[in-house]
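User: 2Fe-2S iron-sulfur cluster-binding protein. Structure?
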Amino acid sequence: MSDINIKITDREGVTHDIVAPTDMSMNLMEIIRSYELAEEGTIGVCGGMAMCASCQVYVVNDPGLEEMGAEEDAMLGEAFHVQDNSRLGCQLHIVPAMEGLEVEIAPYP
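Assistant: Predicted structure:
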C-alpha cells in the first residue's frame, strides 16, 4: 500500500492533514468526501463526471499535477468562483507524484 500526504483546507478555513491512498484509483473529490470535509450534497454533485464544478479546489502547492483536460477546462469556464489555480477534484487522480499537494475547497455556488 502506498499513501501520500496532502493538505486540504475546507470551506470553513480549517486545514486538514490527510493521508490518501494511491492504490485505490481514487480522485481528490472522493478523498474530500471520504474524510467528510464538505457538507453532504455540496461536493461531487455530478458524481465525478466534470459536469458540475461542485468539487472545485484552488491549488495552493502543486507538486506536479497532470495537465488539465479539455472537459475540465470547459467546465471551469462555466463555473463560479474560478481562479487561475482552480482545478476540479474529480479530475485529480491520486498518484504518488501528488505528495505534498495543498488545496483549498472552493465555495459552493
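Helices lie at 28-34, 70-76. The chain has two helices and five strands.
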